[in-house]
Amino acid sequence: MTRWPHVFFATATVYILIGVxxxxxxxxxxxxxxxxxxxxxxLIGWVSQGLMGxxxxxxxxxxxxxxxATNYVFTNIGVICMxxxxxxxxxxxxxxxxxxLGLYAVxxxxxVLGFFFFAxxxxxxxxxxWKTPAVATA
Length: 138
Hints:
- The structure is a single chain.
- The protein is an all-alpha fold.
- It is built from four helices and no strands.
- The protein is elongated, with a radius of gyration of 18 Å.
- It starts with a helix and ends in a 7-residue tail after the last helix.
- The model has no long low-confidence stretch (mean pLDDT 94).
């Protein structure tokens, strides 16, 4: 088995720990202004990467290492940049316009690229599975 399932699961776990603590802080403060950034972190960081890890642990064993690595890098750059720009914007934290524009340009684009590379991994694994004869088990 490759290391990619472990990497995706570990990263997803870090994101959900941050997300749970963030949600608790919003609840205790009664300030839910950044809930959208919190939701993006949980959905892309925790749920999507957890599912990607599950894929690589089961069906994705036939995926080239470079494709899993590229999927991981782009998805995480996107999660971090998108969550950060949403947090800064929604919380009203002053930030340089160039920083905000850069994060806004990089974040969503990287998430989309990460999902395209994930789709490539899925279809590569499917094609390779169809080309490999099934082994009969008794």
